[in-house]
């Protein structure tokens, strides 16, 4: 569905953001339900619709703290409206604060808490709503929220480990590219006259760098920039399609070292989410469907959806997982088989998720050590090539003067 950027005001004051709806009329209707009067409502540009110019969504740490405070107040016997008011006052994230305000207003009008939470799916996903509903039904909301807080906390740790391992090489490459572009545009042109005035044959490496600098400053540079921007937009749009998302996630999993780390992170989130859901009495087939969405990878999600269908037919989850050994190692399938046989699937998955969290931490450190030599060589080649391009003509001049 398309995204629409809006600018308007609500009872608290001016507000802006991006909303997803099937058309402009539906977007206006949804904004009206949220007590937002839109002054402007325009289709979000592909270049900006994913850039969070307004307040960001709450992260896992925000949600973990929210759940811990909610559990503490529920355990202390504070009524729901007072709890929501208190959470509203202590929450720093603006989008989470707006959602809590809307939820409190809904509850004050007699709306059930899970229904009010479900009005904000970008913040309170299906797993959160299902767990709260189960906690209320079994009168164990405080225990449930403590488990959810732990789930968020550990998922944040896994995500940070994976991102940390992937961000460092990305930053290194970005800096290297930026340095090359700046040198080509600002430094090399100033040296070009000097190098060409030395009256010596220029080495091939010098000619290449001078030619690259001239091309980058001319029409070719603008054309290259346009091609890169167009490619980014096309890839972004393609990834948003159903098949594009599947192909992208499949490609990521095939990247040496990085794919394995991403897979471990996804498996850890799946197992932790599934264990938490099952521990709170969520039906196995429903829990598998919700955990599939928590994987963050469409390849894993599709396999788990097959697992849900298998369970709904009366079969076991492990039979589907065993058919995909590259995604679900024997460690998982063996524990799932034992857990299903003994009726202790939640406990088994909890142990597996602990194991994979440690594995992610170890692999993230190893990946950084593995990539570091390549990054050093990459930077060395770039810097060395630039130095060589300047020094070779100068050395030739010095050689001619000494003879």
Automatic annotation (TrEMBL):
Q: Which InterPro entries match?
A: GspF/PilC (IPR003004), T2SS_GspF_dom (IPR018076), T2SS_GspF_sf (IPR042094)
Q: How does it sit in the membrane?
A: Multi-pass membrane protein
Q: List residues of the Type II secretion system protein GspF domain.
A: 67-189, 272-393
**Localisation:** Cell membrane
Name the predominant localization. membrane
Membrane spanning stretches: 166-188, 208-235, 374-394
Q: Which UniProt keywords apply?
A: Cell membrane, Membrane, Transmembrane, Transmembrane helix
PANTHER family annotated for this entry?
GENERAL SECRETION PATHWAY PROTEIN, TYPE II SECRETION SYSTEM PROTEIN F-RELATED
What the record says about family reads: Belongs to the GSP F family.
Any idea what this protein is called?
Type II secretion system F family protein
Species this protein is from: Deinococcus petrolearius
């Amino acid at each position: 569905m398309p995204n629409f950027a809006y600018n308007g005001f609500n009872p608290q004051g001016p507000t802006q953001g991006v909303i997803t709806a099937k058309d402009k009329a539906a977007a206006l209707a949804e904004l009206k339900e949220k007590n937002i009067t839109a002054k402007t409502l325009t289709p979000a540009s592909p270049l900006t619709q994913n850039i969070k110019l307004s307040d960001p969504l709450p992260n896992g740490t925000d949600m973990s703290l929210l759940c811990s405070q909610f559990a503490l107040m529920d355990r202390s016997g504070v009524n729901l409206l007072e709890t929501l008011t208190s959470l509203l006052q202590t929450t720093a994230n603006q989008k989470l604060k707006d959602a809590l305000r809307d939820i409190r207003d809904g509850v004050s009008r007699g709306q059930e808490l899970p229904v009010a939470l479900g009005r904000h799916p970008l913040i309170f996903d299906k797993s959160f709503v299902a767990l709260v509903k189960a906690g209320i039904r079994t009168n164990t909301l405080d225990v449930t929220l403590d488990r959810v807080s732990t789930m968020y906390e550990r998922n944040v740790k896994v995500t940070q480990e994976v991102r940390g391992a992937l961000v460092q090489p990305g930053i290194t490459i970005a800096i290297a590219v930026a340095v090359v572009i700046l040198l080509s545009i600002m430094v090399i042109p100033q040296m070009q006259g000097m190098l060409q005035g030395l009256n010596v044959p220029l080495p091939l490496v010098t000619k290449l760098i001078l030619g690259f600098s001239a091309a980058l400053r001319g029409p070719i540079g603008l054309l290259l920039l346009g091609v890169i921007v167009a490619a980014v937009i096309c890839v972004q749009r393609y990834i948003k399609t159903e098949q594009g998302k599947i192909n992208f996630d499949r490609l990521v999993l095939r990247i040496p070292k990085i794919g394995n780390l991403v897979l471990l992170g996804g498996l850890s989130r799946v197992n932790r989410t599934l264990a938490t859901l099952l521990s709170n009495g969520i039906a196995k087939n429903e829990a598998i469907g919700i955990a599939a969405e928590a994987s963050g990878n469409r390849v894993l999600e599709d396999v788990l959806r097959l697992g849900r269908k298998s369970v709904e037919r009366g079969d076991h989850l492990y039979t589907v997982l065993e058919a995909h050994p590259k995604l679900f190692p024997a460690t998982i399938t063996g524990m799932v088989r034992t857990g299903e046989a003994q009726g202790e699937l939640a406990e088994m998955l909890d142990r597996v998720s602990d194991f994979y969290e440690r594995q992610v931490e170890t692999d993230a450190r190893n990946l950084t050590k593995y990539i570091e030599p390549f990054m050093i060589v990459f930077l060395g080649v770039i810097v060395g090539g630039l130095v060589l391009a300047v020094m070779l003509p100068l050395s030739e001049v010095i050689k001619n003067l000494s003879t």
